[in-house]
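Support request from a user on the community tier.

User writes: "When I paste my structure tokens into the form, the page sometimes reloads and wipes my input. The last time it worked, I copied everything first. Here is what I submitted, just in case something in the input itself triggers the reload:"
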């Protein structure tokens, strides 16, 4: 089966392409780096020829309000129009748990617009909403840093490994279209401040993390449960502490090899 992974060179996309190829599928990584641009339309028609499934795991190069909205709207419209012309039978997109609860943010308004375009299109679809990736946790702390302090709201968070996201998206892509949304999350819940403290400690980063009701998640106010998935969510297996151990081992490898 030919599956086109748009954004197939990114964090999730590259893992997904590898997994699909391991299962014997013809997985094509489509992105500007491989000559396919879902915003300008360059290379799209050829890439989609003969495809049964298209998976959209793109991300916008800019998260500025107008730019990110334009990216997801234009890219999604182009993908869906080209999929209709190519006879693609399943459009799968990766979105974020709680998107509709965070519309104060331009990024989430753009993801919401992306989801809406998919839902009203003629292409059978599945939307996979994932929680925050472990790989993204560091940037949550960095965004809320002021000097040597990190100020965060005491919200709950249930992050997951990018590898588990790739597996979950792959399973959905190989199934029948849901014409609906499925949530995926990690196996454990943390308080945001607790999670960032664990992440900083593993990196021996001396910043102090403070839970503060006035703190912001990526610049916006969130309620205690805004980031967590519902009870029906499919859960990944990788635990944050195991992932931290594994990734710090990997980070040390080049240094040891060159020593
Ligand atoms: N971060 C999180 O915690 C989180 C949580 C849930 C869901 N998500 C969603 O997961 C998705 C994937 O995230 P990610 O971290 O894997 O992204 P990423 O690593 O930043 O990769 C983005 C991908 O999009 C491609 N791309 C950029 N502009 C493009 C264009 N004009 N046409 C085609 N492809 C284009 C890039 O291609 P090049 O390499 O060629 O530039 C790259 O392959 C995003 O939609 C995000 O909203 C993220």
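"...and here is what came back when it finally went through:"
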């Amino acid at each position: 089966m030919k599956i086109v992974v748009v954004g197939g060179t990114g964090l999730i996309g590259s893992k997904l392409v590898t997994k699909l190829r391991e299962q014997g599928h013809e997985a094509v990584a489509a992105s500007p780096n491989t000559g396919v641009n879902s915003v300008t339309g360059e290379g799209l028609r050829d890439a989609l020829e003969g495809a049964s499934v298209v998976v959209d795991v793109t991300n916008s190069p800019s998260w500025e309000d107008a730019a990110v909205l334009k990216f997801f709207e234009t890219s999604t419209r182009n993908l869906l129009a080209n999929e209709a012309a190519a006879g693609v039978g399943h459009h799968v997109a990766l979105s974020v748990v709680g998107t509709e609860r965070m519309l104060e943010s331009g990024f989430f308004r753009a993801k919401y617009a992306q989801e809406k375009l998919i839902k009203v299109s003629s292409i059978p679809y599945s939307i996979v909403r994932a929680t925050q990736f472990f790989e993204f946790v560091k940037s949550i702390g960095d965004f809320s840093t002021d000097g040597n302090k990190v100020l965060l709201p005491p919200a709950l968070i249930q992050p997951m490994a990018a590898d588990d996201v790739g597996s979950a998206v792959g399973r959905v892509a190989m199934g029948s279209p849901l014409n609906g949304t499925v949530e995926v999350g990690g196996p454990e819940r943390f308080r945001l401040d607790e999670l960032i403290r664990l992440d900083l400690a593993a990196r021996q980063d001396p910043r102090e993390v403070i839970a503060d009701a006035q703190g912001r998640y990526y610049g916006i106010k969130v309620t205690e449960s805004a980031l967590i998935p519902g009870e029906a969510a499919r859960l990944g297996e990788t635990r944050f502490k195991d992932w931290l151990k594994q990734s710090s081992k990997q980070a040390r490898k080049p240094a040891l090899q060159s020593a």
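Agent notes: The reload is a front-end session timeout and is unrelated to the input. DSSP finds eight helices and twelve strands in the chain. The CA atoms of residues 7 and 58 lie 4 Å apart. Escalated to web team.
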